[in-house]
Each structure stands twice: as structure tokens, then as C-alpha cells.
Amino acid sequence: QVQLLESGGGLVQAGGSLRLSCAASGRTFDIGTEGWFRQAPGKEREFVARHRRSGEITEYADSVKGRFSIFRDNAKNTMYLQMDSLKPEDTAVYFCSASRLLYASTSTLDYDYWGQGTQVTVSS
Q1: What is the Cα gyration radius of the chain?
Q2: DSSP string computed for 97-117
Q3: How many CB atoms lie within 10 A of CB 16?
Q4: Is the model's pLDDT at 77 over the cut of 90?
Q5: Average pLDDT estimate for 27-49
């Protein structure tokens, strides 16, 4: 099993920045792909960003491209989502995720492990 623990959410004004962290523990050698998803009230969970655990082959949702960045610190076994130029429509609960697949897609169905979620609220 893999355990994921997120932190870093909060309230920020439009145009501001936040950095989310996701610390992994357990059988982390099982992880092929890491990702971030978000879920706004009344909406389905949607893809935000993903990369191979080696840090290669990143992909972003069109809505966040150029504003968000996914990266990891191997020494800390932690993945991050740097969010800049935040907009009110970015308000959601953000989840980090991990897949045993080396080439996991942007579908939630491909991901085996999930964090508990962290709230991000962007005020206008």
C-alpha cells in the first residue's frame, strides 16, 4: 500500500500563488505515475497535472497550462503542485494521486492511491 498526505491548501486572492505538497510513504517503489486532480462543489473530479515518478513526461489540463507546475523532490519523497496566477475558478479540493501504471492516463480510473484532499479557495 501507498499512503499520500497533502498539505499547503488555503485561502488566497486572485492572482496569488500557493504550493501544494504530497508526501508519499509505504510501497512507493510501486508508483509509476503521480498526479493532481481537483473537485469543485457539485462537479466531478477533474485532472489537473501528472508526470512519471521519474519527473519525465509532464502533462497539464488546458485550464492550468502555463500557470501550474508539477515537480518532485526525490530527497524528500515529496511531490508538489506550484500554482501561480490563481483564479476564482481554481477553487476546489485538490487531491494528489498515484498510479502503479507507468503510463497512466488523465482518468481517475487509472489511479490506485489518493490523498485526503486539501481545500484551495481563491477569492476575487
Answers
A1: 13
A2: EEES-TT--SSGGG--EE---
A3: 14
A4: no
A5: 96
Distance in angstroms (rounded) separating the CA atoms of residues 114 and 70: 16
Cα angle: 122, vertex 123, 124; to 5 degrees? 125
Q: Is the pLDDT of residue 55 over 80?
A: no
pLDDT of residue 6: 94
Q: How does the average pLDDT of the chain come out, rounded?
A: 95
Distance separating alpha carbons of residues 29 and 25, to the nearest angstrom: 10
Report the percentage of the chain scoring pLDDT > 70: 100
Dihedral class, residue 13 (left if φ above 0, else alpha if ψ from -120 to 50, else beta): beta
Can you state the percent helix, strand and coil of the chain, rounding each to 5? 10, 50, 40
| DSSP annotation string for 2-23 | EEEEEE--EEEETT--EEEEEE
